[in-house]
Design a protein that fits this description.
mainly alpha
Amino acid sequence: MEALTRQVIYGAVINLLVRDGIQGLTMDRVAAEAGVAKGTLYVYFENKEQLLKEAVDATFDPLSNSLVVLLDGDFSPDRKLAEFALCNLQFFDERRDLIRVLFYDREMLNSDKTHYTDSRYRNILRRLANVLDEGVEQGLFVPLDSMKVAAMFLEANMGVVMQRIQDNISGDVEKDARQVMNIFMSGLRGRD
């Protein structure tokens, strides 16, 4: 019952964020949107900040889980990177309104926390570096600093996401994923 209640509350938070932005998120409004008493929120969450953090984490958990499975899977390193780019772009494209709020809202941008220190980000970064190391070992990629290149690859993917949001582009993520991969694979393979 607790898990179901949390899911309903997380859904209410996400709906409010998309509709009204972070400044429109209040405990009263979340309770009304979720159809629960305001006191119920305080049973599960200490404050609005904790509620927001957990709702956002719950939203991103499926992406993180999918990427971990993909990066730890049996595909070749180059295929893992291509699938990563596609999976990442599809996830963000499907949630573009939420992402726009989270990345462009001034309250979130002025947060003390940076995504570079987030454990989810660091975990994916390490796994990408392992894939790159695997590609070097197999002779698919030129020798490289895997953590730095993994960071470049991850940030390139996020840059494409943000540009798509800025330009109000949706759908056809395959084209953008291919473009990222073509650029990176050219450098990774060391062919001019």
